[in-house]
Structure formats: C-alpha cells, structure tokens
Predict the structure.
Amino acid sequence: MKKLAVLLALSITLFGAAQAMARDISFNSPLTQKEFRELTREAGAAISYKNVAPAEPLGITGFDIGVELSAIDISNSSYWNAAYRNDAPSFLAIPKLRARKGLPMGIDVGAMYSYVPDSNIKLWGIEVSKAILEGTAATPALGVRATYSRLSGVNDLDLQTAGIDASISKGFLILTPYAGAGGVWVNSEAKGHLKALAPTLKSEDVFQPRVFGGVKFSPLPLVGITAEVEYQQRPIYSLKAGLSF
C-alpha cells in the first residue's frame, strides 16, 4: 500500500505539471521550409522514446510499470510559437504511462502512451532492448535498444521517430547511474491547416544524434524513481516513478 501511495502521489504531481502547461498545437501562420525543418527536429526530439532506465534487463519474470514526465524548453522559438498560434508555453511537458516486460535471453519489450490533458497532443511508442552484458555485483550492464514513436491527435502535423542507442549502467546500493548515446530518425509532413497555409511545404526526413545520462533511485523495495537528462537538439528533462515486480 505504501508503494502504491508513493506512485500515486508522484503521478498526480507529474500529470498536474503537464496540465498546467497544456495547449493545443494548431497553426494560424505559415512556416518556411527551414522553420518546418527545425520544428521537425525539435518536435521529433520531444516525442522520441526516452530511455529513463538502467541497462540491466528485467529478467524473464520481471515487469515494470510507471508514470513519466518529459519537458523540453521551447521558449524564444518562432516555429514553436507558430505551432501554438503565437501563444507557446516556455516548456513542452509530456506525461506518459510506461510499461516494460522481461523476456528470455536478456530481452525486454516496452510500450508508452501519452495524452496531455486539455490539449490535442497524444503519442505512443514501442521499444525492444537486448542486454549484451547483464551486469553483476562487480561488473556493469551494457545494452542496446531500438524504439519507435508517433504523434497523434494533431491534425496539422504527421510526425514519427525511430531510434537506436546503447547504454551502460552500474548499481551502487540504492543508486544506479547510467549513460548512453544513439541516434533518432525523424519523419514529418504538414497536414490540415498548416498545409493550407503553406502548400509548398515538403515532408522532412532528418537524423540527429542524442546522448543521455541519469540515475535510478530505489528508496523502497520494488519502487524506483529515475531522473534523466538527454541532449537532442535541446536539453530534455525526464522524471519517472515506477513499480517493478
């Protein structure tokens, strides 16, 4: 009961923070191709599947479920301002539900879903990871991961990402720091009102590197709180609270 209370309290905090910054993405002014490309890069960075976990696998009986909030600074950006009808928030905050399941041979699979309350922003994603080294008391864990994510609910923008990365982690008592690097492919296409405003906009396909690092804090058995910073076009901050079984 205590573990569920901790998770519930953190869930309310994370989703409340996202709701306070929620707005619809909808365009009332056109974008140039250059602006659309920059929006593609940063929107792709925002919706791409975050790591927010150490490299060691869950194991064949393992299961992890949690809530997460990612935030990216979008202040002082003309293309983000256009995406929010000239009323962009300082941060784009995205709350998510996350789940991972351990499989044989050091493989984990996972999924995430997000809906930003009081906005048209929805997204979903999937991941599969493989532990190259599962880690021991004396040695670190090393893993590789592939991901996919897609934005939905925004009629003016079709956006999806695919990523691959590698990470390393090592536990010390109740702390498990980790770090990793990889790349993300982003595809976008103008739709709806944006396409009507700027009919010459072409779809964009971009690749961008990313690096990330974080730490998992396990204050109670089965409870984990993970904080991560990723750099992909801009710094992205993520916080996850989860239960592991």
